[in-house]
Amino acid sequence: MCSSFAFSQQGVGIGTNNPQQKLHIASSTGSLRVESLNEANNVFNGGDVDGDSDLTNNTFPLYVDDKGDFTLELVPLYNSEDSDALDNTVLPGSSVTLLPTDADGKAETQITSYTIAINRATILEVKYNLSFDVYENAAKTVITERVARRISTYFKVSGLTRRYGPASKCYYSGSVNSVPGSMFNASTCYIILPAAGSYTISFFGEVSTNTKGSGGPPTGLANVQSTYVEFATGNDSIFFRLH
Asked: For tag attachment on the chain, is the N or C end more exposed, with fewer CB atoms within 10 Å?
């Protein structure tokens, strides 16, 4: 057995006499192996997860922590994991009412917000899965008048103007026997945060229809009712990661 090491002012070379970095491994075949990251030694390495005896199709992301150490462990900025990220009973802005006299046929509410601090420009990844229930009013009367409502969710970032991660569903009901229960909007978005500082990520819910005070109800519906949407009624999830 023999090894080929070279040292210069530039660094250490393995398989080369002219290292181009502090550590330079030169080889047209093979790769770099770190046994502390393998299946036997690292709980974050899933090994042959699909059970096909082919390890080339079982790969796992490698990260670098704040000390410069390699790790397979993903530590996000925020991850609700198996817990319910949002509880409508403690969020004062978790519901919104759209009245038939509303001028633009649209109403929104800020559901909740999070504040993060960064020390450099970066990319923020946001994933969310946000639940909602739709009724005629706060007494939770079932909608029966066959007018569609669009329920949208999105978030804003302080200092930036866009709506990020928009997701929508349409709700329609013409019977008191309509099945109740939570629906979900889900989205993933990547946002460039341009500089170091503190940022607030605010989640919003919106309900809209083509029924508005200025135009009146659709033909044949003389008494269109209001819409009440309650957000965060189910098992919600939120995930933040900095890149």
From this structure: N
